[in-house]
Amino acid sequence: MKKERKEARKIGVDKRFLAVTYGCQMNEHDSEILSGFLEDMGYTQTNELQEADVFIINTCAIRQKAEEKVYGRLGALKKLKKERPEMIIGICGCMVQQRKVAEKIEKRYPHVDLIFGTHNLHKFPELLQEALESRKTVLDIWPRRGGVVEDLPKLRKDGLKAWVSITYGCNNFCAYCIVPYVRGREQSRKMENIIAEVEGLAAEGYKEVTLLGQNVNSYGKDLSEKFTFARLLENLDNIEGLKRIRYMTSHPRDFTWELVEVIRNSLKVCEHFHLPLQAGSNKILEKMNRGYAREHYLELVNYIRELIPQASITTDFIVGFPGETEKDFADTLDMVEKVRFNAAFTFLYSPRKGTAAATMPEQLTEEKKKDRIYRLIESQNKISREINDKLKGEGLEVLVEGISREEPAGVVLTGRTRTNKIVNFKGKKELLGKLVQVRITEPKTWSLYGEIID
Ligand code: SAH
Ligand code: SF4
Ligand code: F3S
Predict the structure, then answer these.
(1) Mean of the pLDDT values across residues 352-366?
(2) Lower CB count within 10 Å: N or C terminus of the chain?
C-alpha cells in the first residue's frame, strides 16, 4: 500500500481536486479519506469546480431526493467536460454501490471517467491512475467489503473535531433502509487501532471525536475478542488532551442500561443521546423491523433522564411508512409529547428499490405524507423552543468551533454545548478551539445566544 502511494505521488503535482459529498457523516469521512489520497498524490484542494483537475462526487442513496440531486449535477457537468476533456470526473459512494445505478450512469453519462463503490474506497489511487490512462469509463464495484483496511490517509476538515470510524456496514435490515445493501455487513475495527487513532488525534490537538457507525452499540460483536462499545468508551475516556467524545448513531434496541451508566461515569462522553425512534406506533415499528416497542423506548429515555438529568435527547422520524394510518401517526405525535425531544430530524418515507418496504401495500400519497410531516415539525418545534427557553440564564460549557460572523461591534463566535446545542456569542478570535462558559441570554428554537462568563 505504502509503495503504491509513493508511486502515485507524482501524478497530482500542480493539479487541483474538488470532492463534494452527499449523505451522512460516514460519507463525509470517506471523502476525507479520498482527499487524503489525493493530497498524498500531490493534488491540492480547491473550492472552484472550474479549476479542478479531479472532481469527485461522493453519493448517498438514503432517499430518492439524494439520488435526484446527483443526476442533476452529472447532467450539468457535460459541458465542462467538453471544454476540459483532460479533467477527471469520478463518482462513488452508496448510490453507485447499487450496480444497476452504476451501469446506468456509465451508459447515460459517458463524460464520467470513474465509477466506484463503497467497498473499494481504499483502491482509489489505482482506480484514478487507471482512469487517467484509459479512454473508457473505469467502473469497479465490489459486491462486498474485503475486510477492515487500516492506515488510510485522511485530510480532515478541521483541526478541532474529528470523525473516527468504529464499525462499517449494518446488519439490521430495517424495512425501509438501503444502507445494509450499499454498506454491507457489520465489521468492527480493532479496539487498539481506534484507541491509537484517537490518541494520535489528541496529540495533534484535536479536542473532540465523533465515533462513527450505523449502529455503534453493536461495536465489537463481530470481533473474536468480544469488545463492547461501553469498554471502548471507557478506554477513550482516559485519553489525555481530548475533551469530548460523541458517537453516531445508536440503535434504541441495543442501547444497554450499562452503557447509560458508563456514560454517566465518564468525563468526556457528552450528555447527548441521538436515538432514532422512527415511529411511535408499535404496529409500524414492527413493520419497520426496528426490534423495539414504544414502551422500551420510553423506559430507556426515563433511565437516561434519571441518571443524567441534563441529557439532551434527539431523534429521527420517518413519516408515511406504508400502512401508517392517522391513528399510527397520532402515536408518533404522542411520543413527541411524552419524550419531549430536544430536536428531531423528520423525513418523508422514500421507497428504496430492493428494500422490504418498497413493495409493501398501502403506500401513502406524497400529499398525505407532507401533511403529516408539517404537523410533526410544528409539534416538535414548540417543544424544542420550550426546552431551550428554560436554559435562559444558565451557564453552559461551550467548545468554540468557529466564527459565525464579524460585525462592526465585534466577532460573533459559534460553538456547541456538551448536549450538542449551537450557541452564538461575542468573543475574541483567540478563543477558537477553547472551552468557555457561556451564559444563555436569548434561546431560540434551533440555537441559543449568550455571553461569555468571565
Ligand atoms: N443507522 C442510523 C440511520 C442512518 S440513515 C440508524 O439506524 O439510526 C438516517 C435516517 O434516515 C434514519 O434514521 C431514518 O430516519 C432516515 N431514513 C432511512 N431510510 C429512509 C427512507 N427510505 N425514507 C426516509 N427516511 C429514511
Ligand atoms: Fe438503516 Fe436500520 Fe441499519 Fe440504521 S440500523 S442503517 S436505519 S438498516
Ligand atoms: Fe447515505 Fe450511505 Fe450515509 S446511503 S446516509 S451516505 S451510509
Answers:
(1) 97
(2) C
Q: Is the pLDDT at 3 greater than 50, yes or no?
A: no
- CATH number corresponding to 395-452: 2.40.50.140
Cell of 437: 462558559
Q: Which residue CA neighbors atom 4 of ligand 2 most closely?
A: 214
Omega before residue 249 within 30° of 0, cis: yes
Query: For residue 342, is pLDDT > 60?
Result: yes
pLDDT tens figures, 88-112: 999 999 999 999 999 999 999 999 9
Enumerate residues lining ligand 3, CB below 6 A: 23-24, 26-27, 60-62, 94, 178-179, 182-183
Nearest CA, atom 7, ligand 3 = 179
User: What's the pTM value of the predicted model, to 2 decimals?
Assistant: 0.95
Nearest CA to ligand 1 atom 8: 276
Residue 85 near residue 135, CB atoms below 8 Å: no
Best CATH choice for the domain 2-140 from the list 3.40.50.1970, 3.40.50.1820, 3.40.50.12160, 3.40.50.970: 3.40.50.12160
Distance, CA 170 to ligand 2 centroid (Å)?
A: 6
Residue 290 Cβ < 6 Å to ligand 1: no
